[in-house]
Every structure is written in structure tokens, then in C-alpha cells.
Design goal:
three-stranded antiparallel beta sheet; 288 residues; six-stranded parallel beta sheet; 38% helix; alpha/beta; homodimer
Chain lengths: 288, 288
């Protein structure tokens, strides 16, 4: 497995793979890889004959007060994960490679970015969409793999692919969880032991939401109240939002009378955790 | 030469061409083709072994008060021009093909779209950039051909290709002109005989600018005054802007101490005409 840092090198790797008639799978990551990422790479490995993984902490998707500078970086450990999971090449560019001059061109996704995380992270999805288009244009994959953990990101990227006629397919893979239910995230390593203990309440709240929903409670206020009740058991948890939205438009709904997404962002000390589950759909993506 | 209307068909044509190891040249147009377009197709024909032309009056680049509905449309005549100029395929989609649902994803180009036409056509370049990305993603050309007549468009599209890492090359071709100097434009056919007569003053003003500049006058105010003096000879001409800007940033300058673009938009009755020339560069793109 090669690790390359320039656009010329990764394009050369892809060109050679294409010459051997490989299909190209692509897994974009910010590094600090965990079992969730590994499952994305393994899914790409199953679907495609050549797998590229990018490792890049994209500055344009972080707000000024966010954790860009302290975001965990460890390309050496990440390379071992990639290799074991079956990646063929890692693309790990520096900022000067992806943003050699001031970025003037942005991909903006309207409406779908107004709610949920978009409300609290202005500019975040503009940065995500833009860097994904850059990667897609550099690598030219047949399929790109994203985790359901970042549910709004998946909706945004899927819409971007449709609306910009990008010639690739987006594959969504299930959220992976720790044995106690905590959704895997690179940010979990920020947590102190006490924070880690309380962090389990996010998935517990979503499970409670599913339970109450399955008993016939389709009123969104009631479902949100049930989730907030569980979260309130963690005194250091501060919910940023707890919402139930239409799964396609990501707009608020009053009643779960269609496929819906229950999603939350919760501050746990300095760390912002997110999790979500689907209501009214049996696709296993939330693994709850 | 084939004319196709769906994304599947054009992608199929391109796929076949790629299988025959063709290089792909792409000329995006809004139809109503004239000798300027023909020269773009001929340039593509020289550089590439397979040439695709799109004919599509893109609604998202027109403002509500602009000429979208009366923009000339004549695909039958256009097809003859394309065939004669050596195109291999025309892609002429309907709106429902390019915008099957409400467009939520836009490519926005900052700063470069604030000045010149961008000041007077809010949203225009967002529409242009977005539809070009769509076409580039649908067709996947090696080279795309644009006319210098739309100078700001060329700067915007070039920056977009750079900033989004689009895997293609932009080729700029010289403005083509009528014998009296009027830059060719599909909108010239809107002009009454009297308007047509006065329209020649745009290119005359630019020629005067070049003449005065070549005599050592590098002060922008003086050069603009020289151009406005010529334009004032046409009583029905109403300049929207007459500007000289940095050729790369498109920002206003006081002195032509670097390569610069002299550009104007002039209303001539209901018709909005644009023209431009380069100062401090000998590349023949403005053909003045």
C-alpha cells in the first residue's frame, strides 16, 4: 500500500488502476481512524477492486472556535488500519496541496444545511461539500463510502452528487458502536473517563426513542421529551439539539408519519458528540 | 453527427469515444450559433479527436427581468453549424433533464463575480458555474472551449476548474467580430438597423482605448473617459459599466501597471451588449 501526498501522484495511481480495469472505491476520512472507518474501507474493498483512502483534516469545515488544531492526527497508525482493511493507496495531502491559493469557489447546499448541525456549525457543510467535490475530481471514484453516523453529511453529499451530476455512487454504511452503544468517533478520545461514562446516554436516548416509537408514539414532541429525559441523567451533558426531521428534506416534522431521522448533538465537556437513528425504516444503518 | 437529449445517451456516446481512445473536446453553448461558436468548435476539432457541443439555454443564469424567454432558439440551424464545424455529437437537453428537481446545490465563485457583469446580473455567474460543472461532470471532457467575448466568464470558469480540481483544461478562443468590429453575439439579432449601426461604437471605444494606451496613457480614468467619449456618439447607447480591471482578480485599478481588462456592458434599446479588450498583453484574444 502506497501513501502519496500530491495530486499528480494520486492521479497517477488511479490512472494505472484504471488501465488494469479496476473499479475505484474511495473512502474520505480525517484520519484518527477507528473501527467505523475500517468498516468503510472493508465495504469499499468488497465493492471495488481498487480502494483509495484520503486522510485529511479539512480546515474549511471547521469553525473558528472549533477543534481543528487539536483534532487527533496520526498518519502512521492510520496507515496500519488502512492496510489491514485492504486499502490500495492513501492520499494524505497537505493544506498547500488542496488549498494552494485562497479558495474562491465553494459548493453550497441550500436548505438541507439549515437544520441540525448546520444550525450550529455555519459554513461546516460548505467546507465538507467543497472538499468532497475536490477529492471526487482528483480521484474520480466509481463509489464513495460514508458512515451513517454523520447522517446530515450523507444527505448533503447525496444531494450534491445528484444536483451536480457527479459521476459516482454514494454508499452509506452503518454506524459502528462500542459494546455499550456509544457511536464510534475520532472525538471519543477527547473524553475523560467520567465523560465517557455519560456519553453512552446519547445512544441510550436514541434506543429509548425507538422503543417508544415502536409502541405507537409518533408524536415528535413526546419522542424528543423521551430522549431528553434520558440525556438529563448525565449532569455534564449539554444537548445542542435533539430533533426529529423528515429523512429526505431534514425539515422539522410534528408527527413521524414518514421515514424520519432522530438526531442529536450533545456537548460533553469540550467535546461535541453526535448520534442519530432512523424511525420508520428497517435498514440497520443506525445499528441500534 | 448525432443529437442526443438525455444524460444516459451523451454518456454512452462519450464512453464509446473513450473506448476508441479519443480525446474529448467540449463546447458549451446556448445555441443561436454564429461564427464565434463555429470557431470554438473548430478549435476543439483541431485539439481533440471527439467533439461534443451542448446547446442549452440555461435558465439559472438569467435574472427574472432578463431575456430568458425571448433568447433565440433554433436547434435545427444550430445542428448544421455544428456538423459543418466538425462536431461529433450535440447534447441538447431539456430543463427536466438538467434540473429534474429544485436545484439545491450551487457552485459559487467569490470576489471574481462581484465586479463588471456580476454587479448587474446577481446570480448570473452562480448559474453559469453550476451548469458548467454539471456539463463537465456529465461529459467529462479533456478540454472545454470558451470565447474571450465573455471575459469575466472565462476568469470565473478557470478559477472554478482550479479551485475544484476539475480534471480538464480550459481553452480560451479569440472574440470573433463582424467586418465593422462588432463582437459577434447571439443577441445581435435583437438589434434594429439603427441600433446595429450604433452598436459598432463598443468596439470603436475599445480600439480607441488601446490606441490611447499605446501612446502611453496608463491612467484608468483617462482611458475610461476616452471610451465613454466614443460611446456618447451613440444617442441610444446607455452604458451599464465601462471599466478597466486587473486581468486576474477583476478588481478595479487606477493605473494600467499590469495586464488589464477593459470591459463594458452597454444597453442598446432592450438589448444588453458586452465587449472587452486586453491591455498590456499581446495575445490576440480580443481581435481588436
Amino acid at each position: 500500500m502506497k501513501i502519496v501526498k500530491t495530486i499528480e501522484e494520486i492521479r497517477q495511481e488511479i490512472r494505472q488502476a484504471r488501465q488494469h480495469s479496476h473499479s475505484i472505491g474511495f473512502v474520505p476520512t480525517m484520519g484518527a481512524l477507528h473501527a467505523g472507518h475500517r468498516s468503510l474501507i472493508e465495504a469499499a474493498r468488497k465493492q471495488c477492486s481498487f480502494v483509495a483512502v484520503s486522510i485529511y483534516v479539512n480546515p474549511t469545515q471547521f469553525g473558528p472556535a472549533e477543534d481543528f488544531s487539536r483534532y487527533p492526527r496520526n498518519v502512521t497508525a492510520d496507515a496500519i488500519v488502512c492496510e489491514k482493511a485492504g486499502a490500495d493507496v492513501i492520499f494524505a495531502p497537505d493544506d498547500s496541496v488542496l488549498y494552494p491559493t485562497e479558495q474562491r469557489v465553494w459548493v453550497v447546499v441550500e436548505k438541507l444545511t439549515d437544520n441540525l448541525c448546520g444550525r450550529f456549525r455555519p459554513g461546516h457543510f460548505r467546507g465538507v461539500a467543497t472538499v468532497c467535490v475536490k477529492f471526487f475530481n482528483i480521484i474520480g471514484p466509481d463509489q464513495a463510502f460514508f458512515g451513517q453516523k454523520d447522517a446530515q453529511q450523507v444527505v448533503v453529499i447525496r444531494r450534491m452528487v445528484t444536483d451536480l451530476n457527479l459521476p459516482l455512487q454514494i454508499v452509506t454504511c452503518p454506524t459502528l458502536r462500542e459494546p455499550d452503544g456509544l457511536a464510534m468517533s475520532s472525538r471519543n478520545q477527547y473524553l475523560s473517563p467520567e465523560q465517557r461514562k455519560q456519553a453512552v446516554l446519547l445512544s441510550a436516548a436514541l434506543r429509548e426513542c425507538k422503543r417508544v416509537f415502536s409502541q405507537g408514539q409518533h408524536n415528535v414532541s413526546a419522542l424528543i421529551a423521551a430522549m431528553r429525559m434520558i440525556l438529563s441523567q448525565g449532569p455534564i451533558l449539554h444537548p445542542e439539539y435533539v430533533q426529529i426531521v423528515d429523512m429526505d428534506s431534514l425539515e422539522d416534522i410534528d408527527t413521524v408519519d414518514r421515514p424520519a431521522l432522530a438526531a442529536m448533538a450533545v456537548r460533553c465537556g469540550q467535546t461535541r458528540l453526535i448520534d442519530n437513528c432512523l424511525l420508520g425504516l428497517q435498514n440497520g444503518l443506525d445499528s441500534l
